[in-house]
Design brief:
It contains six helices and 33 strands. With 483 residues, the protein is mainly beta.
């Protein structure tokens, strides 16, 4: 019913304001060259979810599930917008099962949020229309149907939704060829070179981990760069993997943004931790490197909390995948052009007003538990039509996420952006990459993370859930209604 109303509502909608889409141009990539932003397609208003065979690098082809204007490509199209644009997309499901798209991190009306109850059948379409009201940032979109999100995202249904605005323009950040969007995924390959997916028993607890890195749908990607400053916009689009992102040179990177756009102040880091669903915006400096220099973006090894990693070595038909916390190469940069440029001094970043604890109207606690093949929030598994909490429109709330299990839970809240107040227990600190606006926060076993958000953009039913996609599919998700 709701879908029909929505279609009527938008049938007479104004034409697309300023939506431009950039397609990952894999077909032009003869090697493992990372798909980079190419042709601008300002006319594109149609996105199709479909299955096809795409090149995944080094001449190899595999079946991918993708979202694009109709071209087969190994990753979903990148959508570029500016704050204030109106996005209007006709989404067509050409899969053989239901699906729906969620715009991760964006403030959108209820009907555009991609709640699984809005999933559409194969052969049908859904019309999205929403104003882009977020500030500049690295947002993304992905499939979000009930119980099928993990596999659909794994097979390629994840894309970037980049928002720019005047504040960001004023900073003169690296752009064009020096802006590198990077959607990270990890997969396992079958002997035939296809993507293997099928969580076995222990993976229904831990989540599904791959052993082969993909960047923008390209296996073990390599990309040519100038000896200059580059902007790297990284999305963790895996199902369960946590990355500890660093450079092989051990050179520092400048962290400039997170989930919800620019941080209040850039900060030099030697690594950032990135849970499923999270994003970071990094400045990486290749200046001074000679032609032929190679720099690997890698995930450093770290001690994975709890988890089933220890069971991997026990044999017994475990399907595989690199353990959580394993060292992994992510994407390689090869300097192919030397330029003499002095990076200009960093300009002042737009301020973020901190939401103060005293502003909160109330607090709520959510306990995340994984045990006995069940993943629950406050003891309950997701039910499509049950409203778990009601949040008064306009209120400010502190939500406390407590991890009672032995697995990490990257907790994602739809519709709002929040600020991280505290992390108690476990790692016991708020990290530099958690300083700005966020929509997803990593909660390790034994940790309690408090976030604060204002619910003043839209009314309606939204979701809060774990972004470990197996956990999500098995019910670690709750409905909240802004009323
Ligand atoms: Cu989880």
């Amino acid at each position: 019913m709701r879908r029909r109303e929505f279609l009527q509502l938008t049938a007479a909608a104004a034409p697309l304001a300023a939506l431009t889409t950039i397609r990952g141009d894999s077909t032009a990539a003869p090697t493992a060259e990372l798909s980079r932003a190419t042709a601008s397609r300002p006319d594109q208003q149609r996105l199709v979810a479909m299955i096809g065979r795409a090149e995944i690098g080094q001449g190899q082809h595999a079946e991918v599930w993708t979202v694009s204007d109709g071209a087969i490509q190994p990753i979903a199209s990148t959508i570029r917008t500016r704050t204030g644009d109106t996005v209007e997309i006709e989404f067509e499901n050409a899969l053989t099962e239901p699906t729906i798209l969620h715009w991760h991190g964006l403030h959108v009306p209820e009907a555009a949020d991609g709640h699984p109850r809005l999933a559409i059948d194969p052969g049908t379409t859904y019309r999205y229309r929403f104003p882009v009201s977020n500030r500049a940032g690295t947002y993304w979109y992905h499939a979000h149907p009930h119980r099928r999100t993990a596999e659909q995202v794994y097979r390629g249904m994840a894309g970037l939704f980049l928002v720019a605005d005047a504040d960001e323009d004023a900073l003169g950040l690296p752009a064009g060829e020096r802006e590198i969007p990077l959607i990270l995924q990890d997969r396992r390959m079958t002997a035939e070179g296809e993507f293997a997916f099928g969580p076995v028993m222990h993976e229904r607890m831990e989540g599904f981990l791959g052993d082969t890195t993909f960047g923008n749908g390209i296996r073990q990607p390599v990309m040519n760069v100038d000896s200059a400053l580059h902007r790297l916009r990284v999305v963790n689009a895996t199902g369960a993997r946590i990355y500890r992102v660093a450079l092989s040179t051990e050179a520092p990177m400048t962290l400039i943004g997170g989930d919800g756009g620019l941080l209040p102040t850039p900060v030099s880091v030697d690594h950032v931790d990135l849970g499923t669903g999270e994003r970071v915006d990094l400045l990486v400096d290749f200046s001074g490197l000679s032609v032929g220099s190679r720099v690997m973006l890698r995930s450093l090894p770290f001690e994975a909390p709890g988890g089933m990693g220890r069971m991997r070595g026990m044999g017994g038909g475990m399907a595989g995948g690199a353990a959580q916390g394993a060292a992994l190469d992510l994407a390689e940069f090869v300097v192919t052009r030397e330029v003499q440029e002095r990076p200009s001094a960093m300009k002042r970043f737009p301020a973020i007003r901190p939401l103060e604890r005293a502003e909160a109207d109330r607090g709520r606690e959510f306990r995340f538990m994984s045990a006995m093949m069940r993943h629950t929030i406050n003891g309950r598994a997701f039910e499509m039509d049950r409203t778990d909490i009601e949040v008064p429109f306009g209120s400010t709330e502190i939500w406390r996420f407590v991890n009672d299990s032995e697995f990490p839970h990257p907790v994602h809240v739809h519709e709002v952006q929040f600020q991280v107040l505290t992390r108690q227990g476990g790692r016991n600190q708020r990290f530099p990459w958690e300083a700005g606006w966020k929509d997803t926060v990593l909660v390790f076993p034994g940790e309690a993370v408090e976030v604060i958000a204002r619910f003043d953009r839209h009314r309606g039913r939204y979701l809060m859930h774990c972004h470990n996609l197996v956990h999500e599919d098995l019910g670690m998700m709750a409905n909240f209604s802004i009323v």
